[in-house]
Automatic annotation (TrEMBL):
Organism: Heyndrickxia coagulans DSM 1 = ATCC 7050
Keywords for the protein's UniProt record, in alphabetical order: Bacterial flagellum biogenesis, Bacterial flagellum protein export, Cell membrane, Cell projection, Cilium, Flagellum, GTP-binding, Membrane, Nucleotide-binding, Protein transport, Transport
Protein name listed in UniProt: Flagellar biosynthesis protein FlhF
Region (Disordered): 71-90
Recorded family membership: Belongs to the GTP-binding SRP family.
Taxonomy of the source species: Bacteria, Bacillati, Bacillota, Bacilli, Bacillales
Subcellular location(s) of the protein: Cell membrane
A Gene Ontology BP annotation from the UniProt entry: bacterial-type flagellum organization
NCBIfam families: FlhF
Superkingdom to which the source organism belongs: Bacteria
InterPro entries: FlhF (IPR020006), FlhF__GTPase_dom (IPR047040), P-loop_NTPase (IPR027417), SRP54_GTPase_dom (IPR000897)
Composition skew (Basic and acidic residues), residue ranges: 73-90
Any single Gene Ontology cellular-component annotation: plasma membrane
SMART domains reported for this sequence: SRP54
Length: 381
């Protein structure tokens, strides 16, 4: 008995090979569909593996092969036994399935038709695509793509989508970990940034937590004297928290306030942040306060802003030493990539993100992990 394994793209091709090598007497013992990893692992090749056998003595004594699954000998016009029908049917079925799968792949590929991602396996492309929908910079995505691709190869292409998602998050989290996060420990907390982004509200949230959670002795200082309403707004929070507020009109007022609050734990400084004069003013402050040792300056930006505008704001504040960002209004958007891009571009972390108008609840102390979750997690679908 001679047994041999054949591999062909389809059954009729396999038959040809078998007939050629083993002759008409050959019988098929087994056949199955096998997937072979194709180019880059994502265009899988489907092959039929057929095990066929021939008994060289069979013709001589006229014995019939025991229970052949499929005899090739049909030249006398006999109908093959049932088995071939079943096998043809199952081949038809699997072809149908294959066509459906191919259609799905084509649909997916056209969805991810970013040419820059085409070098990656499909599940990696899919992840990068969702990052791209979140507005993450292309260069960062390609970096993540390369790292995911490496993992994919290490695993011989056996990486489930959930695993790729987990790794994408972990990669981003690790990358962002080189910056500093959280509220900081310095005595003066200064919020700067464009009007309307939520500086005063965020400052109130931070102050309320300092008082309620950490029992700190705090005070407010505001330099936003452009609008009466702005002072009233902060006064309301100061009254609610029962803490003092000083309104600063000129630099000497600031000096007085610093003396007055010398034994306080933390001073929250609100600014209007609207024009050059304000920036000049903050710069002058550096003559009074040792920024490096005593002041945390957080540049506040709303994620509802256009990324280009956000960058212009950061550039316009370049003359001021900024420690970290605060990103507000996450509840009003579903794309968070800009926050990550800014941190990457300017090499700074984030103190807080805010996600609503409620004081003090709608605010989270930032970590690299929350950004990874926002851009690759459920939020970022
Ligand atoms: N939806 C939403 N609104 C916010 C958030 N933070 C602040 N706001 C609102 O944005 C508006 C401007 O806030 P304000 O603190 O006065 O901004 P400022 O001009 O930067 O001081 C107010 O109506 C706030 O209630 C936030 O995280 N989410
Ligand atoms: Mg304000």
């Amino acid at each position: 008995m001679k047994i041999k394994k054949f591999m062909a793209p389809n059954m009729s091709e396999a038959m040809k090979q078998i007939r050629l090598e083993l002759g008409d007497q050959a019988v098929i013992l087994n056949s199955k569909v096998v997937q072979r990893k194709g180019f880059l692992g994502f265009m899988k090749k489907r092959n039929i593996e057929v095990i066929a056998a021939v008994d060289p003595d069979a013709g001589k004594n006229g014995t019939v092969q025991t229970a052949p699954a499929y005899s090739l000998k049909t030249e006398r016009g006999e109908k093959p036994a049932r088995a071939p029908d079943a096998s043809v049917r199952s081949e038809k079925e699997s072809l149908k399935k294959e066509i459906a799968e191919l259609k799905k792949v084509v649909r997916e590929v056209s969805k991810f038709a970013n040419p820059a991602y085409q070098k990656y396996p499909l599940p990696v492309q899919k992840r990068l695509n969702s990052g791209s929908q979140q507005g993450l910079d292309e260069s960062l995505l390609l970096e993540i793509g390369d790292a995911l691709y490496e993992e994919w190869e290490k695993a011989n292409g056996n990486l489930a989508e959930e695993e790729i998602l987990k790794q994408a998050k972990a990669l981003l989290q690790k990358k962002l970990s080189r910056f500093t996060y959280g509220r900081g420990r310095r005595k003066y907390v200064n919020l700067i940034g464009p009007t309307g982004v939520g500086k005063t509200t965020t400052l109130a949230k931070m102050a309320a937590r300092a008082v309620l959670e950490r029992k700190e002795k705090i005070a407010f200082i505001t330099t936003d004297t452009y609008r009466i309403a702005a002072i009233e707004q902060l006064k309301t929070y100061a009254n609610l928290l029962n803490v003092p507020l000083e309104v600063i009109y000129k630099l000497s007022d600031f000096k007085k306030a610093i003396d007055k609050f010398s034994d306080f734990d933390r001073i929250f400084i609100d600014t209007a942040g609207r024009n050059y004069r304000e920036r000049q003013y903050v710069r002058e402050l550096s003559g009074l306060i040792d920024f490096q040792a005593e002041m945390d300056t957080f540049l506040t930006l709303s994620l509802t802003m256009k990324e280009k505008d956000m960058k212009e704001v950061v550039d316009s504040f370049q003359s001021i030493r900024i420690d970290r960002f605060i990103f507000t209004k996450l509840d009003e958007t579903s794309t968070y990539g800009a926050a990550v891009n800014l941190m990457e571009q300017y090499g700074k972390g984030c103190a807080y993100v805010t996600n609503g108008q409620d004081v003090p609840d709608d605010m989270l102390e930032a970590t690299p992990g929350i950004f990874a979750e926002y851009v690759f997690g459920e939020n970022g679908k």
